[in-house]
UniProtKB/TrEMBL annotation, chain A:
It is found in: Cell membrane. It comes from the Bacteria. This is Phosphate transport system permease protein. It comes from Streptomyces lycii. Its main location: membrane.
Length: 332, 353
């Protein structure tokens, strides 16, 4: 067709991209389109700035009225006579439940990712990956419903067992006999929820590990585990870390699953198996309905802290990945 | 690692070392399962979770001990790694299978035509019946408006990043899109609450929920579209530009059509993701028992919020309704996912790899 005359044409204009970049300024269509697309980019940035600004503004309104220390107080009483509210319990609950979730989920997720990428029979691996993908899409409220109505009664026995044999560790000492609506159960439920997320990302990274390294290790007589330890895991380390951070971000901000499972309180207790405690997101969900405008501002103040926490986690993840990339010798 | 000097006997057909029979892992798994449940039964533990954990421990330890005795230390380590990986897999399957099974089993009890076509008007938690029609209407409207707002912005931003962006602005946008992906949904809800409701004085409405969902949806759309646009071969762009086609027409007529399959998939996955968001809807739409077709005024219901509210009522009837709505929600999300992935597979060869 007409394509043959155009084939010799490129040599006539060897520097393709630079002229087109200059050309964009001359065509009105290009100008409009560039303006639109750059505008949406700027809109996103503005939005982020607006989120930070508005949350800070409303939080300032609330905190300036607060008679207790916002960071260290164990009260949540923004509508009370002395206006007192603080996030100490929420910080504690959020961090503890996320740590439990990470401790359980990360090793298991790495195991599943290895299972899918290196151990499972090939015919099983593809459907498995597919199913894990789908599980990552299950809405959190469904996990919450399942956690409250199935997991909580189920973990009752395990709680008793932990109390009986590990009660001497203090953290596993259960002082009451209520249902397992505690931070420990929340941690387990969060682990179940973030498992597919971490597994997905980790599996992707494991699948990209250099085949040559693996084959070289095999040729030297390494067992499958040695291959994984020497070539797959070092290559995937930054991937595992970033996946874990993604999971952590999700665990920190999870609302509904915690709100359905936990029976919250503002009394501090180091016993993980006792009901009580709370997380940022759960507290917002639980206190929102009874809050007047000032109460909402107080909740927004706690939301701002959650926002900053997730920003820090994401930023840290990005830093770690950037640094690991330089040191990882497996890029070849 | 320890050298195994015995491996220097290359007898054809046989391996130098003694090997475990092929059925050994399966046999060990059976034996440890039996041992675990036997001991659990003997000790009178009611929770089957503990039986399983005990069996898993027996399996791993048993494998290690026996393999060390038969095959040597390195092989034992390999076996133990294999068994740990299998145990991880089994551990993860149990809750996820239980979740799926419970939702389906308890959801189908109430899920029927009546449930899908009636609202909760005039019903309380003490009576059976009622349905989720109002919630479906609410969710569809809120998600539709969010999609209408998020997709153009997301697409244009992705185009900017891939086709134009080089400088500091593009770097900043990339970074903040990453950061935005990590915003908890409740924070997005609080942001709209602090602006739309508290500062501008608007009341609760489906549209307010859509605004929060938009914030959650935009970064997902940007990310997936960006990935897809990067897959479009540069030769296509160059060919079009060489023919004298303006850049914006090249993008609209060449780049986007090439990547449209992947972009559609990304958008559908994003829709599936936000359709299940409860927290922002709870703060901004508040929920309702009645049918409200107008997303711009007054409270609306929503499917995920309906699940939560029925759960909180705490009667057997409301639990049934919660499970029914949860099943509907999961099916909606899963169908979106499956169709999206089918489109991705169907359109995949077009990327010209």
């Amino acid at each position: 067709m007409n394509t043959t005359p155009t084939v010799p044409a490129p040599p006539a204009e060897p520097a393709g991209p630079p002229p087109s970049a200059k050309g964009t300024a001359t065509r009105p269509g290009d100008k409009i389109f560039l303006g639109l697309s750059r505008g949406s980019g700027i809109l996103l940035l503005t939005l982020m700035a607006a989120i930070a600004a508005f949350l800070t503004y409303r939080a300032y309104i609330a905190i300036s009225e607060n008679e207790a220390n916002f960071l260290t107080s164990f009260e949540w009483n923004p509508q009370g006579e002395p206006v007192e509210f603080g996030i100490a319990i929420l910080v504690y609950g959020t961090i503890v439940s996320s740590i439990i979730a990470m401790v359980i989920a990360v090793p298991i997720a790495v195991g599943i990712a290895l299972f899918v990428s290196h151990y499972a029979p090939r015919r099983l691996a593809a459907p498995l990956a597919y199913v894990i993908d789908l599980l990552a899409a299950v809405p959190s409220i469904v996990y919450g419903l399942w956690g409250a109505l199935v997991l909580v009664p189920y973990l009752g026995g395990m709680n008793k067992w932990l109390d009986q044999y590990l009660g001497w560790t203090y953290i596993f000492d259960k002082t009451g006999t209520g249902p397992a609506r505690n931070l420990f159960t929340v941690g387990i439920l969060l682990a179940v929820m973030i498992l597919p997320v971490i597994t997905n990302v980790t599996r992707e990274v494991f699948l990209q590990s250099p085949k040559m390294h693996e084959e070289a290790a095999l040729a030297l007589g390494a067992t499958r585990w040695e291959v994984i330890r020497m070539s797959v895991l070092p290559f995937g380390r930054s991937g595992i870390i970033s996946a874990s951070m993604l999971g952590l971000g999700r665990a920190l901000g999870e609302t509904m699953a915690v709100a359905t499972v936990l029976s919250p309180s503002f009394l501090f207790s180091g016993h993980l198996l006792d009901p009580g405690g709370g997380t940022f997101a759960q507290n917002i969900a639980a206190k929102f309905n009874e809050a007047d405008e000032f109460g909402r501002d107080a909740l927004i103040a706690s939301g701002l802290v959650l926002f900053v926490m997730t920003l820090l986690v994401n930023g840290a993840a990005r830093l770690i990945i950037a640094r690991r990339k330089e040191y990882s010798g497996a890029n070849a | 690692m320890d050298r195994q000097p015995a491996t220097d006997t290359p007898a054809p057909g046989t391996l130098a070392h003694r090997r475990m029979p092929r059925w050994a892992p399966a046999g060990l798994a059976l034996a440890s399962a039996a041992l675990g449940s036997g001991l659990g039964l003997a000790a009178g533990w009611h929770s089957k979770v503990q039986w399983g954990l005990l069996a898993a421990i027996f399996f791993v330890l048993g494998t290690y001990a026996i393999t060390t005795a038969v095959e040597g230390k390195r092989q034992a380590k390999d076996r133990i790694a294999t068994s740990i990986v299998w145990v991880c897999f089994a551990l993860a399957v149990v809750p996820l299978a239980s979740l799926t099974w419970t939702t389906v089993a308890r959801g189908v009890k109430v899920l029927d035509g009546y449930f899908l076509s009636h609202s909760m008007a005039g019903l309380n938690q003490m009576v059976p019946g009622g349905g989720i029609y109002h919630a479906i209407i609410g969710t569809l409207e809120q998600v539709a408006f969010a999609t209408l707002m998020a997709v153009p912005v997301g697409l244009l931003t992705a185009i900017y990043l891939v086709e134009y962006g080089k400088g500091r602005l593009a770097k900043a946008v990339t970074f903040f899109v990453d950061v935005m992906t990590g915003i908890p949904s409740i924070v997005a809800g609080l942001f709209i609450l602090s602006t739309w409701v508290l500062t501008f004085g608007m009341g609760p409405s489906g549209f307010a929920g859509s605004l929060a969902l938009t914030i959650l949806m935009m970064p997902i759309v940007v990310r997936s579209t960006e990935e897809m646009l990067k897959l479009v071969p540069n030769e296509l762009r160059e060919a079009s530009l060489a023919l004298g086609v303006p850049k914006w027409r090249t993008i609209l007529k060449v780049v986007l059509p090439t990547a449209i399959g992947g972009i559609t998939t990304g958008v559908m996955l994003a829709v599936a993701r936000i359709a299940g968001e409860t927290a922002p809807v709870m703060l901004l739409v508040l929920g309702s028992s009645f049918i409200n077709n107008d997303p711009f005024s007054d409270e609306q219901a929503s499917l995920p919020l309906y699940v939560y509210q029925e759960y909180m009522l705490g009667t057997p009837y409301s639990y049934d309704r919660a499970w029914g709505a949860a099943l509907t929600l999961i099916m909606f999300v899963m169908i979106l996912n499956l169709v999206a992935r089918a489109i991705a597979r169907w359109k995949a060869p077009k990327t010209g790899r």
